[in-house]
Amino acid sequence: MPWLSDWSYPLPEEDLLTWTFDHCDYDKDAPIYIDLENPTRTLSWNTSRSIVRRLIAGLRAAGIQPEDCVMISSFNDIYYCMLFLAIVGSGGVFTGANPAYTSFEIAHHVKTARAKYIIVEPELLPNILEGSSGHVPKENIFIFNVRGQPCPEGFKSWTWLLEHGEQDWNRLTGKDICRKTSVARLTTSGTTGPPKMAVQSHHNATSWFTMVNEISEPPWKITNLSPLPLFHVATVPAVHCGPLRKGHVMYLMRRFDLEPYLAAVEKYKISLLGMVPPLVIAIINSPLRHKYSLKSVRRVGCGAAPLDKDSGERLKALCADDCTFTQVLGSTETTGVFTLFYYPDEDDTGSVGNTWFPNSDVKLIDDEGKDVTAYDVRGELCVRGPSIIDGYFENDKANRESWDEEGYYKTGDIVYRDGKTKKFYIVDRKKELIKVRGFQVAPPELEGVLLGHSDIVDVAVIGLPAPKNSDAELPRAYVVRKPGSNINEGDVHKLIAERLASYKRLTGGVKFVGEVPKSASGKILKRVLREEAQKEQAAGIGYMQSKL
């Protein structure tokens, strides 16, 4: 039997912007968003609200209609959050592109999200133009030259959107309309093909933030620092809305760089940090940890991939004496965190939570989809509740595969729940995603690119375990050449490098094989390939990180 929620919590029944702006009791002229690189660039509640209302008027003047999707392609900036809020407030739907995307990936993103408008940094414009050609007209592309760059000839600066007065946002009231109205289409890695678009609603966003941040709040002042990319679910709505909702100061990094990050923690007395395992590993293994103090940090949450308990303890030792370091489990489909430790609970066992959200249910299933929910039993975690999205955008097949008849989302994480402590632990991943520096790499996407080459007749991609002191798994391709072909490892690496972002490169190497192992039904037996790789590792042969 599933573990049904045994407690409830009142959740918002209003749109995201009303929830963000209309319930604030702090100094509305105090800086909330601060640019870490240039701390004189700040945004208060009053300034943010005015800018958002001006941008809403500008987007409507540009012709945006309800449910039109607007894509942002940019590195982090405090005005990125304003654009997000304005897109949603105008009735549109946000989607964020990774600035590392190639034109090939941009093309897929634009088509899958059905983006009709694009706001892009000038340096990223060439890839955007190539990738969006035939889908987004030039007049619907605005240049996000927020750092004083010149606007390319023939394009409008994003500041044009600020020149049409102010208009209020679309206000929504009621759980049903807020659940049906979209906020964002967020990229989620596919396991049966290229990335899909998870549709986050107003109700998903407000419910998630409420359940994470407003049930058990610490008594001390919260000051945040975030290097996490603003296109990622980890920041939607946490960074785009949370600071304005709560009055918590947020220092934003344009891009992550370890020394400025550590220096900022010390200088601005950062008290709360959200991390991913690669960041933890980078800090605890860097001599810079002795140069800068993290003693102001009183709470750290870590997610995106499991982290060994020793690394967590080493990070915690650098922070305040009363700091809690805990891990979480979540995904784009769950709007972020789903299992967790509420403050002031802590953990030193590597668990991903001793509870889950209120108003929500969980169960474990076996490989055949049968309910095996029980303590100390391994199974695929399935979840349902107000923070779980209703599905992927225009992808009925994926929706049928990922949700069961009872409305549970199948996470793909193999977990067990300890019968004594009631804590959850991740032990495996049913979905064969590869985790590289906090990003998810879907093997089918790499396989699709490689199979597009005329000299490759079959391929399988797996992830090799991360090397010691690293949290980047290593994608490896097993390639079957066309008879008579002389395609080599360098050619394969070049193909991936030309088509996909750098974190998707085959750092685990390329192996040419006579055939890819498959079942009688034709399913690739990746388990066999992983076992072969493990034997190679044990023997010390054929297992090294590619330098290409």
Automatic annotation (TrEMBL):
User: Gene3D superfamilies from the xrefs?
Assistant: 3.30.300.30, N-terminal domain of ligase-like
The protein's matches in Pfam families, at most eight in alphabetical order, are given as: AMP-binding, AMP-binding_C
Q: Which residues form the AMP-binding enzyme C-terminal domain?
A: 445-523
Organism superkingdom: Eukaryota
Stretches assigned to the AMP-dependent synthetase/ligase domain = 27-393
GO molecular-function term, one example from the UniProt record? CoA-ligase activity
| Single Gene Ontology BP annotation | secondary metabolic process
Q: Which family does it belong to?
A: Belongs to the ATP-dependent AMP-binding enzyme family.
PANTHER family (alphabetical): ENZYME, PUTATIVE (AFU_ORTHOLOGUE AFUA_5G14270)-RELATED, LONG-CHAIN-FATTY-ACID--COA LIGASE
Indicate what this protein is called per its UniProt record: Uncharacterized protein
What organism does the record attribute this protein to? Cercospora kikuchii
Ranked from the top, the taxonomy reads:
Eukaryota, Fungi, Dikarya, Ascomycota, Pezizomycotina
